[in-house]
Amino acid sequence: QVQLVQSGAEVKKPGSSVKVSCKASGGTFSNQAISWVRQAPGQGLEWVGENIPILGTTKYAQKLQGRVTIIADESTSTAYMELVSLRSEDTAVYYCARRGSTWPLEAFDIWGQGTMVTVSS
Amino acid sequence: DIQMTQSPSSLSASVGDRVTLTCRASQTINSYLNWYQQKPGKAPNLLIYAASSLQSGVPSRFSGSESGTDFTLTITSLQPEDFATYYCQQSYSNPWTFGQGTKVEIK
To answer: Do the chains contact at A108 and B46, CB–CB below 8 Å?
Structure first.
């Protein structure tokens, strides 16, 4: 069974960048579709982007396009999400999640524990 | 993008109550609808996928149904551990989108 373990909390200045990691254990990493979902304090869930290593495809939420990069290191079974030009509104818990890619289980069935990213001067 | 609208935004209920949460998609998504439960400070947990399939390990008091672009999550007998926020999410087309959530509180 795949487990996802994320890196620790980050505090960043506006205009800087942050890189969050998500290490997978169990299963075949390259077959997994790993998405990133964020949740601002007291708010709902927002999809950020997704990488599927075996297909070599990456997709991003339009509002973050150009500021977010998601990559996968298959040698270490680790996914990374980097967000640049940070703004206060990027303050959120960032989750990685495995998305099943075979019907009917095309849902986020495994989640990391979350990484709090705080953007503050 | 497909918009997901949940109602109500919050509700108060008692242990043992039957609770129904609704999610409406802005366009047809067939059965590509998933439900999650989230407790404070925790990651979301998948309850229902493909509109009505129960995720492994989830109690049978949870069920899902669909009618066109309207989807329903029903909890037949609310338990103390069910007080949480529930989100729907469509997996029909990218970008994957979530509803704004329904918070189930103790009456």
So the answer is: yes
